[in-house]
Amino acid sequence: MKSKYIFFAVSLVTALSVNAQETYENAKLAGEDLNGTARYVGMGGAMEALGADISTIGTNPAGLGLFRHSNISLSGGLVMQTNGKDFANGNKTNPSFDQIGGVYSTRTGQKSFLNFGFNYHKGKNFDYILNATNSLNGSSQNKQSYLKGALGDEGKGGFFINKDTNGENIGYINATSYINATSKPVAYTWSQIDYLYWNTLIPGSPTASSYNYEPASSYDFNRSHTGYIGNYDFNVSGNLNDRVYLGITFGLKDVHYNAYSEYTETFANGAGAIVSDNRKITGSGFDVTAGVIVRPVAESPFRIGAYIKTPTWYDLTTSNITTLTYRNGTTKKEKGISNSYDYKIWTPWRFGLSLGHTIGTRIALGLTYEYEDYSNINSRINDGGYYDYYYGEYYESSSPDKYMNDHTRQVLKGVSTLKLGVEYKPVTNLAVRLGYNYVSPMYSSDGQKDPGISSLGTSYASATDYTDWKATNRFTLGLGYQFRKFNIDLAYQYSAQSGDFYPFSNIRGVNVTSTNPATGATTTVSESNIATGSKVKNDRSQLLLTLGYRF
């Protein structure tokens, strides 16, 4: 049977202009990979006080103030996933264009310079394949939706089920509002996944007014992520008497995220269901970074650096096409849904301190510490706008999604990043580099996606899975060779990260009432839906080549 796709306007008709996104979806856009020039990567990114590398434009802009000559560079390579299996349009090895930029340096005094820089670099590479499988012991994705209906009220994390004018089950705020209100307000807890299950599996037979769930014995999940966040940075920096270095960077971001997943459950009765989800996120953002580097002692090369980055103000669009297919012998049920909407998120402020020191012309040492509190990610609701008649411009306004932001503060936390790097030159034109880069966990150990939040981020959800990723450890090494005004640099990076994957969230202690059709007697039992987690990994390798020219 050919899939039938339905636009999800029926349950969101009152919220077409107000949109938001869910915590775990927002978290995918937060943070940055270790990427840039091969020298920067080979040093573990610990160059925020050493400077004189174009990649510091987006971390400590003052680093460009150490350039005394104009310079251009170009970087690219391969990104390789060391675990997982190929799925859909995802590949474990992918070429990557990572960086292009340059600095124009002008002398303003005997020991002072004014520099202008531009750099593009791939701030985040989404190429990754996630595979997970495990037993379920009677829990299931459709049982999560079923129990939300049993809760019966948006205020309790559920919804009241009744039929709309098209004869489809829809989740309303509660029974009272449905009966008394002419608008029949739909619950924000009513998600796209709920819509699919409540109009396929959950209605019983022979009547559609009897409801039940299908317990599952196991699940299999695969998702391919592709795309990137491109950073376009514009910089002005200066060098004051070779003692104080200042810089400011204006950054633009270009978001391209694509993901395709298939979630398969095998039910206890031998039947099965597949939920396929195709999601796309595009948009742009901007931020500002300011930094300083100081040499406290004139006769010493020791440097101290400090910098601050504003939130990235993202304006985004997301869309999905989601289908559910149920098979039980010759019986087949299939339903589809699609949606597209605009939303905003603001990332947290970032703060950094760094130390740098050179020993003669042979050794360079770098250390950097950064802090960013991801619990302060601000999910925003587009709530209209206003027209400025004086300038002839329309400005869109937004407000915080209070309930989703409260959930973000529970699930996400502050992240510390430590960078260590060393460069050794055995001869004048040859450099050997080593680096280490550590990023603490973003997610709380007991965090989970909450399907009962009264938020548009819940309403628009087309998947129930989430992963609590742990710390990231990156190990790097590199080589650099200088020939006259040309330089060639190579770097290798190994990044290791593990996490706990869950196909859906845990729901505990929901009272479910059933009626015996023969006697009419009712019984109430307490039911739970407990997901089985799977250990997953995101281990990646990168080979990076940079070509540069000084003039």
CATH class equals Mainly Beta
Which CATH architecture would you pick? Beta Barrel
**Rg on CA atoms, Å:** 27 Å
Helix content, binned percent: under 10%
Shape: elongated
Q: Runs with pLDDT <50, length 5+?
A: 1-17
Global structural class: mainly beta
3D architecture notes:
- This protein has a single domain, classed as Beta Barrel (Porin), CATH 2.40.160.
- The protein has 7 helices and 25 strands.
- It has helices at 23-27, 38-42, 141-151, 175-180, 192-198, 402-411, 456-459; strands at 5-7, 71-81, 93-107, 113-125, 128-135, 160-163, 169-172, 216-240, 244-267, 272-294, 303-309, 313-328, 331-346, 350-359, 363-373, 378-388, 393-400, 414-427, 430-439, 466-483, 486-502, 507-515, 522-529, 534-537, 540-550.
- A hairpin with a 4-residue loop joins β16 (378-388) and β17 (393-400).
- It is elongated.
- It starts with a strand and ends with a strand.
What's the SSE blueprint?
Layout: E1 5-7, H1 23-27, H2 38-42, E2 71-81, E3 93-107, E4 113-125, E5 128-135, H3 141-151, E6 160-163, E7 169-172, H4 175-180, H5 192-198, E8 216-240, E9 244-267, E10 272-294, E11 303-309, E12 313-328, E13 331-346, E14 350-359, E15 363-373, E16 378-388, E17 393-400, H6 402-411, E18 414-427, E19 430-439, H7 456-459, E20 466-483, E21 486-502, E22 507-515, E23 522-529, E24 534-537, E25 540-550
Parallel strand pairs: 1-13
Antiparallel strand pairs: 2-3, 2-25, 3-4, 4-8, 5-8, 6-7, 8-9, 9-10, 10-11, 10-12, 11-14, 12-13, 13-16, 14-15, 15-18, 16-17, 18-19, 19-20, 20-21, 21-24, 21-25, 22-23
